[in-house]
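Lay summary. Proteins are chains of building blocks that fold into shapes, and those shapes determine what they do. In this project we predict the shape from the chain. Here is one chain we studied, written as its sequence of building blocks.
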Amino acid sequence: MNWDLFPQFLATGLLTGGIYSLIALGLVLIYKASRVFNFAHGHILMVGAFTTWWFTENLGWDVWVAYAAAIAISVLIGLLIERAALRPLIGQPILATVMMTLALSQVLQGVTIIVFGAYQRSLPYLFPVQPIVLGDIRLKQNLVLAFVLAMLGFVVFVLFFRFTRAGLAMRAAAEDHQLARSVGLRVPRIFGMAWAIASVIATVCGVLLANISGVELTLSLIALKAFPAVLFGGLESIPGAIVGGLTVGVIESLVGGLPQDPAIRALHLGDIAPYVFMLLVLMFRPDGLFGLKRIERI
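And here is the predicted shape, written in a compact code that computers can read:
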């Protein structure tokens, strides 16, 4: 690596990792609430970006108004998925629920292609595009502001999770479903709330990513990079989602910045690096950095 460019790659990786962290937060939330690893999360993200584009392109709405409308629709999508697809599977083997999320991902992709088409679009900019220059480091202003917005989203969620009655109920249900029921909590309703919030997080991240790379089907693949972040940080850890997302962003940026001949560059090592990192995490620390080992008495 050209070490003069190391600060540039590091800063870019941290900013991108902030968005990955917020995506990972949605995955952690669903897992904490229902013990389900949601493979449809990236496709909900993609639908949010396409919905925002449709409102701006076909209805002529301001991009921020379209953003708010897409977030409102994402709440309905999350509630509908939980009520119609996942609630009937309560009490069934966990594999059935995981397969349902995989099926949902394909349904969402198919509906998106039918309704919006499969070609790439551009979204009006949420933020200015002029670069921010800090010495030898040049950063995209929209990426910097997207990082700030992602971190603010984290703060809002943590405050909600710790200091509101709904957040405390979600924490209780995440610890033990049967115990939560025994004290009068409506666990199915909490599941619905978790899916609605996770869908909002996905839509927020989808529009942030679309503002950087465009509105396209591959947004769902970009969201897959949050999976290594979740596994590294710990499936049930909110701080782990932050650390994991930032780590994955930095690894992707630094590996992509390594000097490579054209044949190797064609392999897109920067895109592969997060998944190699995920394999290493699973081999040497499967519970994640902040994960908890659950010991059950037989």
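What the prediction tells us: The beta strands are 131-134, 137-140.
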